[in-house]
Design goal:
This protein is 49% helix and 14% strand. It has a four-stranded antiparallel sheet, covered by helices on one side. It starts with a strand and ends with a helix.
Length: 250
């Protein structure tokens, strides 16, 4: 939807703040929350619908779309990093039987490294017991071998039909080791987010150098990307604190 100012003339993009304040009939019935997304246009000389009569921003549409794309790219990549960190936290056992602790177990299945959860159904049949029911009973030996070679510290018990794992209680020393493991995973996530920030900001600086972005717009976007990074690093920190608390709780 395009915003046509009452006075007509050549168009320029309007920022969200101006759109919210503008009283042009072209925006009649449009909720304020949606005005941010409008491709609003107003003449360089001024918009009669604005309370102060000042024209809207001269920021070209292509530039605004580029800014949005860079922010969206950074946000998407950092969100995936956060999700990966949380998934990795779930693979750290805490003394309670949980199928997720087997998520990183890979099985040599006919010469191919295959995730265990793709080869069997895994369930917690008690607070200390996991039951693994292989879809292909011929893979049971391969699954047992993978479990024994993993860093889980649990010995599989098979009756030829299903495999059972007894989850032992963690010692204080083991809990401290797992806590360090969680911290290491969190640090990997922080580094990944900062790498995203570096990549995006480098791209923005190149656009500024090529005169595709103005100095002010470049600085504005770099600030936004830095704040976005701080936000996701903080979320990783919080997730790590929660996992450490879970690990150390007897």
């Amino acid at each position: 939807m395009a915003f046509v100012p009452p006075c007509g003339g050549p168009g320029l993009l309007a920022p969200a703040a101006r759109l919210a304040a503008c009283r042009s009939p072209s925006l009649g019935g449009v909720p304020l929350g949606q005005r941010r997304d409008l491709l609003a246009r107003a003449p360089a000389g001024g918009c009669g619908g604005c309370p102060d009569g000042v024209h809207h921003s001269r920021r070209p549409l292509a530039v605004v779309m580029a800014l949005s794309a860079e922010e969206e790219d950074a946000s998407s990549r950092m969100e995936k990093t956060l999700e990966s960190v949380r998934n990795n936290f779930n693979t750290i056992r805490t003394g309670r039987a949980a199928p997720s602790i087997l998520d990183r177990v890979m099985v040599d299945y006919y010469g191919a490294e295959t995730p265990l959860q793709s080869l069997a159904s895994i369930s917690a049949t008690s607070s200390t017991t996991l039951t693994i029911d292989a879809f292909d009973k011929g893979s049971i030996k391969d699954i047992e071998r993978a479990l024994m070679e993993s860093d889980l510290g649990m010995m599989p018990n098979s009756d030829g039909v299903v495999i059972r794992l007894t989850v032992p209680q963690l010692t204080t020393e083991r809990r401290k080791e797992l806590s360090k493991q969680a911290k290491a995973l969190a640090e990997e996530g922080r580094v990944a987010c900062r790498n995203v920030r570096r990549d995006v900001i480098d791209k923005v600086k190149k656009q500024e150098k090529a005169a595709e972005l103005g100095k002010d717009m470049s600085k504005d976007l770099q600030d936004k990307i830095s704040k976005l990074t701080e936000k996701y690093v903080s979320m990783i920190d919080k997730a790590c604190e929660e996992k450490e608390k879970d690990i150390m709780t007897v």
